Amino acid sequence: MRMCCWYAQTVIRDKPADVIMRGMASIFFRRMHGYWPRFIKPRSFSEKLWHRMLFDRHPRYTLFSDKWRVRGYVADRVGEHYLIPMLWQGSNPEDIPFDLLPSRFVIKATHGCEYNILVRDKSKLDRATAILQLKQWLKEDYGSGVYLGVQWGYRNVVPSIIVEEFLGSGERVPWDYKIYCFSGRVLFVEIHMDRFENHVARLLDRDFNPVELRVSSIAYQGSVPRPENHEELIRVAEALAEGLDFMRVDLYAVDGRVYFGEMTCYQGGGCIRFGTREGDFWLGQKWQLAPACKVESPLLNIKKAAP
Hints:
Layout lengths: L1 H11 L6 H15 L11 H11 L4 H6 L4 H8 L8 E5 L14 E5 L6 E4 L7 H13 L2 H4 L15 E5 L10 E7 L2 E9 L6 E6 L24 H12 L4 E9 L2 E8 L12 H10 L21
Antiparallel strand pairs: 1-4, 2-3, 2-4, 5-6, 5-8, 6-7, 8-9
């Protein structure tokens, strides 16, 4: 795995994967999913996701992967009122104005996944530890150093820090609606509940009826209520995914309002194993894969600033 990350970082960089990179990725894929992949002519959802990671160099994946700059895209497509209110943004964690922040907030690094610090009570926050953690995250090359270094969209994101409001009134984070869009249309919604506590998830179709397809190892078998603004969730997700062959749009529904979470180009880093191979191939049929873009200049057409 380290060899693959090194190769992606030093040899592949912004180019499509060569035969050596594909070979290493094939071995990893076989271990993860239980079958040998076809990356050139993919069939299953997992194969098509890896096809995107290995070959598609469209500049939009850099924009979508940047948690700061994607806000500009969201504001243009659906309006600024869907953005979580921003409290601060910068590149030096030591500049965060902790004394001016409210008692509850969320700190995020913008260039990867799971770079989050949830602050439920500022009086209990160890600021020095938080700053050290943020400095460590800012040094990491998420695009080339995680998951074999194939999540190319993160590679050229300029690392920075954002501080957002903590949504909701309780201490628990709100339910996370991960909405799977194919050819700009919602196919199903994966609702993640009680993240960071007793994390479970439930898969529903676009009308919020149960779907017997497992894309998560933390499946919840009970029923979940349909949110009052479920039609708005679907509408916003489809507006953001318009013109894209596949995109997962993550939204929140809090106190009668819909908020944007993130756009996920590389679902689970291609490492989530489906409950059945049949489900993987069935979902692959829903993805009408667009031709890969081989542009080697990742800064093309993505210089729009966040609002």
